[in-house]
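ZP: hey, is the magnesium ion complex queued? I don't see it on the tracker
AM: it wasn't, my bad. submitting now with these inputs:
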Amino acid sequence: MGEFELIRNYFAAAPCAQAGEGVALGIGDDCALLTLPPGAQLAISTDTLVTGVHFPDVCDPFLLAQRALAVSASDLAAMGATPVAFTLALTLPDVDADWLHAFARGLNVMAQGCGLRLVGGDTTRGPLSLTLTVFGRVPAGQALTRRGAQPGDLLCVGGPLGDGAGALTLVLNEREAQASTAQALLARYWTPQPQLALGQALRGKASAALDISDGLLADCGHIALASKVRLVVERETLPMSGHLLELLGLQAAQQAALSGGDDYVLAFTLPPGHLAGLQAAGWPVHVIGRVEAGEGVALIDANGQDIPVLTRGYQHFRETR
Ligand code: ADP
Ligand code: MG
């Protein structure tokens, strides 16, 4: 199978590659063409996943595709953007029809779940790696950035933390769990659900936001730096799933919630006046701390005492974990 046949069979023919809102021209030309409504801005994000670094060398292509696209779509959620389209640059060691079929199927499941259309890409030979670029639209000036947090705001997250890190111990065969626990955690790892609707609901309300990919404390550090404020995290308020607690126990679960990556849950700062309305409307908003004047990220216990933090999160090109 040649490059063009491969693109045609597995990608151009996929349901998620067919025309849709905002896509004036999809796969097959030198560029895709996207149409934005008047007054909208285009939100763009790129992520690369490399075999052996971001996912195990041997893994299920159906799940891998879903995870890769979910991770990218999560960046749109974090900006409060409405998904429009994505491109896929795929580097493959060889052409394996079964693998491609399963991969394209997984891509399609997540793309349709997120409302994203595949509009182009590139296909090359080499060690397996995926680069996905997502495009979303957001009313001009309303994107949720990392820079607007103000002293007095609440620090919130959109769901349980630490499941990604807990699941990774299963993915890497470092731990074993009961079937139901393993199933729930592995689903959170392989098919994270980007909080797209929550992100859009936070437009005009949250003062800063991001999605937690490197661990809560590390990612809060990004908001603190960009907004020139101090974030205070109250350890006892962190939402955690029963599955995570069962797998790791309280202490290790808290560590996973604080420093583990791969959760793809939104973290955001919120002027307190917006809290009741969002919660009453059913949005998953968990208050885990507050914004103060100052800098950096502090972790406190139930008595307000500072807890020293050793490992803050995962960074490539750094030896600490
Ligand atoms: P060019 O050489 O002009 O960049 P390509 O031969 O790389 O074109 O790709 C032909 C068309 O197929 C383009 O529209 C491109 O966006 C699309 N395409 C290539 N690879 C993929 C892929 N993996 N997924 C989706 N579309 C792809
Ligand atoms: Mg090309």
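AM: back. The longest helix spans residues 61-79.
ZP: great, adding it to the tracker
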